[in-house]
Specification:
There is one protein chain. With 768 residues, the protein is of the alpha+beta class. The strands form seven sheets. Strands 2, 5, 6, 7, 8, 12, 13, 14, 20 and 25 form a ten-stranded mixed sheet that branches. A four-stranded antiparallel sheet has the order 9-4-1-15. Helix 5 runs parallel beside helix 10, helix 6 crosses helix 7 and helix 6 packs antiparallel against helix 9. The longest helix has 22 residues. The protein is globular and about 100 Å long. It binds a DNA duplex (22 and 22 nucleotides) through strand 3, helix 5, helix 6, helix 8 and helix 11.
Length: 768
DNA sequence: TCAGCTCACACTTTTGAATAGC
DNA sequence: AGCTATTCAAAAGTGTGAGCTG
């Protein structure tokens, strides 16, 4: 839990609470629902919405030179599921993910604060159906739903906080309710998705900036379902999830127990009838049970009887404990895929809980145990996710990756090292797409992992913590050495020519450069790395933005909420930017695009790209399905590689192998082929000009949809019925950003705050 | 007819308040 | 009075299966 003591900057007034945020277990009182919160008259807000930035004299924190790394703690469990074809139940009310994401972070600056986000993006453009024991792509994906982001409840927290414990996102819930008001992550059923975790440097929840690191673990891909399709998955979940313990063979809710209950009910009914009919059958023995027992009591009795010798066969045929007793004698069936082993390892969840595990739900603990057990005997990690074209659900087994996925956000080049592919994982088992897909054909020979270049550098306010060595991103891009993130572009695509590919208008770049040059002291002048940089894209010219953070802290004059029409171009004015730069649109933010615009002045650059799978297009299923490469975590470095997008090569088909990295030690996984995960293909680079003037580049969902039609007009909103509620926050009097935190809101449920953390809806849809 | 979805159900774990003991 | 441990009940998380829907 957060505390004001720990995070003084969180000591915002009520408006802060009402700002579409909800925090886990916070007092529910006085928390207006979103979007009402956004309608609050800004003028009524307390003067100080955000903590003042550190003073000029305030010591800056040093940016840690250590690479930010994220490890998937329960990677083995994930791999077990992935080897079968992970399915995630989604319900109207929201369903937790199991397995959950259990992560370990390292390389953070202990004194800086970070926000951890979880978002889930489509893995491809297909809809799936479980046929013939496997998943088959049967058509095109449905229109993309509002992109919501789950904010880890601890956010923002210091790097020390994140690194001292296992980070779990088990509170995040998935729903298929497109009208969901709970803030859950909305997904389509029978679609394949890829979770992503973002680490964003931030002074507090509303002040994001600095470096961003995005991590993708291919083994966490899953297909959403409303009911489990694959029995193997069901068995795995039952045996791994403590909440489903009752469904295990020896559980009270196992099929046999249920059948027994059913029989007993039938018997009770018939017995009751008999009693009513004055049937003299053994009333002294079972009548009390028959009359008073509920299924629960009957089960308890049955359980108690289980250890007893068989009861004499009642003359009436009513044997309450019979089934239960028999059930207990039935040995557990051996589970496929090492389930038996798993079951044995987690047979006593309570034990594991008692072992002193912290910060984990029971399921997570079970996972941990499973993980440990996996390290001893790890099953082959083979993904059964189908290759759409292959028409086959079965995949060859792939060699097991290292027990854990570790990824450094800065190690893009490492994983992309084509010259030194990981021998341990010669082939991936999410193959089909890769080999068959023309898009990936070029990359099929490369070991470069597909990277979602969602991380980018971003102006960071000076650290308030004097103990901090240096500000993470205090310097402009002009001084690469100063910022560890600035080096990412080169790191990612060292071999690519520098340049040029960045399509930002030269004028814009000049302006930015000029601005930077003129504002040397401005921390915000740091280079901005836009996401979705293509590995192939070599040299993204770093795009620098004018300072987004105004160091001067003034009362917030207003907190206007604008409601731009859906489909309207997601552009936002940048006060401190030249007039011709005022409308800076992010391609992926368009309504019909996967990710609506993020109207964050100082944050938009960092976030919008981060949550924008630019490569995801609502293409017909006929499109080749991108391959899925399990095994490694794709670190998304925070460098900006916008150029990739603009360059023709940005297209997945034209992707080039990233340059080999000199250091491969940071990643425990072998390099993945680029584009293994479709949406992570650096296809859609950020190109303001393209966005504004090249509608054809926008995602095409429905030909009939206005947004899909080429036109000079801005793309139409994908979700017409849902207004957007950009929240305009002002961190200083000089700049006002239209913040697209449309779904940053707090949920009220039965008068209680949302217990599951914070959600940020990146879409244009309103939560309410 | 059927695939997919919703809901109630029973079981389980988790959580927090109440209580007891020191 | 304050702290810790225990107990208890409510809330919430599970998969299942019947029923509904298009």
């Amino acid at each position: 839990m957060l505390s004001l003591e720990m995070y003084p900057s969180l000591s915002l007034g009520p408006q802060r609470i009402g700002d579409c945020f909800f925090r886990e277990r916070q007092p529910p009182a006085h928390m207006p629902l979103f979007p009402q919160a956004c309608d609050v008259n800004p003028k009524a807000l307390p003067p100080r919405l955000l903590a003042p930035p550190p003073g000029p004299n305030e010591p800056a924190t040093n940016t840690p030179k250590e690479e930010v790394k994220m490890e998937l703690e329960n990677a083995n469990l994930w791999k077990q599921f992935s080897s079968v074809g992970t399915e995630m139940i989604i319900t109207k009310k929201g369903r937790r993910m199991f397995p959950g994401l259990r992560l370990k972070l390292s390389g953070l600056n202990p004194s800086l604060r970070y926000i951890l986000l979880l978002d889930i993006i489509p893995a491809d453009n297909s809809r799936y159906r479980f046929q013939g024991g496997g998943w088959q792509a049967v058509g095109g994906a449905e229109a993309r739903l509002p992109d919501r982001v789950f904010i880890h409840p601890d956010s923002p927290a210091t790097g020390a906080h994140w690194q001292d414990r296992t980070i779990s996102f088990h509170y995040a819930k998935l729903t298929n309710n497109t009208l969901d008001t709970q803030g859950h992550i909305i997904l389509h059923s029978l679609h394949r998705y890829q979770p992503r975790v973002h680490v964003i440097e931030a002074r507090d929840v509303l002040r994001w900036g600095g470096g961003q690191h995005s991590f993708v673990f291919p083994e966490t891909q899953f297909i959403t379902v409303t009911a489990y399709q694959n029995n193997k998955i069901t068995d795995l979940k039952i045996n791994a999830n403590p909440f489903a313990k009752g469904f295990r063979e020896d559980g009270m809710n196992s099929k046999k127990q249920r059948d027994a209950r059913q029989k007993r009910k039938i018997s009770i009914s018939s017995e009751t009838l008999d009693i009513v009919n004055c049937d003299p059958c053994d009333s002294t023995e079972h009548l009390p049970q028959s009359i008073t027992s509920t299924s629960s009591t009957a089960d308890l009795q049955a359980l108690a009887l289980a250890s007893l010798p068989p009861l004499p066969d009642p003359s009436c045929g009513f044997r309450p404990g019979e089934a239960a007793y028999q059930d207990t004698l039935v040995p557990q069936q051996t589970l496929d895929l090492g389930q038996a082993f798993m079951a044995s390892q987690i047979s006593d969840i309570g034990l594991s809980m008692a072992s002193g595990m912290q910060d984990t739900a029971g399921s997570e603990m079970a996972n941990s145990m499973i993980e440990r057990s996996d390290t001893l005997g790890e099953p082959a990690y083979t993904s059964t996710f189908p290759a759409p074209e292959a028409n086959s659900s079965s995949f060859p087994s792939a060699p097991l990756p290292p027990p854990s996925s570790t990824f450094s956000s800065l190690s893009v080049s490492d994983i992309s090292d084509t010259s030194n592919p990981h021998p341990s994982i010669p082939s991936m088992d999410y193959p089909s797409i890769l080999s068959s897909s023309p898009i990936l054909s070029s990359s099929s020979t490369t070991t470069t992992p597909s990277l979602q270049q969602t991380t980018f550098t971003f102006p960071t306010p000076p650290p308030s913590n004097s103990s901090s060595p240096q500000p993470l991103l205090c310097s402009s891009s002009s001084s690469p050495a100063a910022n560890t993130y600035h080096t990412i572009p080169e790191t990612i695509s060292p071999h690519t020519p520098t340049d040029d590919s960045f399509s930002a208008p030269s004028g814009l770049q000049d302006q930015i450069s000029a601005h930077l040059n003129n504002s040397p002291s401005d921390h915000s002048s740091a280079a901005f790395i836009y996401p979705n940089s293509l590995p192939a894209n070599p040299d993204p010219a770093p795009v620098t933005f004018p300072p987004f953070f105004n160091q001067n802290h003034h009362p917030l004059p207003t907190l206007p909420c604008s409601f731009p029409p859906h489909g309207a171009p997601t552009s936002f004015p940048l006060p401190s930017v030249p007039s011709h730069m005022q409308n800076l649109a992010f391609p992926n933010m368009h309504q019909n695009s996967a990710h609506p615009a993020l109207h964050l002045q100082n944050q938009a650059p960092s976030l919008a790209p981060a949550f924008t799978p630019s490569t995801f297009t609502h293409q017909p299923s006929s499109l080749p399905h991108p391959p899925f490469q399990p095994s490694s975590c794709f670190a998304v470095s925070s460098s900006f590689q916008q150029s990739a997008a603009s360059a023709p090569s940005a297209h997945p088909q034209n992707l080039h192998n990233p340059p080999p990295s000199s250091s491969t030690t940071s990643s425990s996984y072998p390099p993945l082929e680029r584009g293994a995960i479709p949406q992570f293909n650096p296809v859609a680079p950020y190109r303001p000009d393209m966005v504004l003037h090249h509608p054809s580049l926008l995602p095409q969902l429905d030909p009939s949809h206005p947004s899909s039609m080429p036109s000079s007009n801005p793309p139409q909103a994908l979700y017409h019925s849902f207004p957007s509620y950009p929240l305009r926050l002002r961190q200083d009097p000089h700049s006002s950003l239209s913040i697209p935190f449309r779904h940053l809101y707090r949920q009220h449920q039965h008068g209680h705050p949302h217990p599951q953390g914070s959600y940020l809806d990146m879409s244009t849809r309103a939560v309410f």
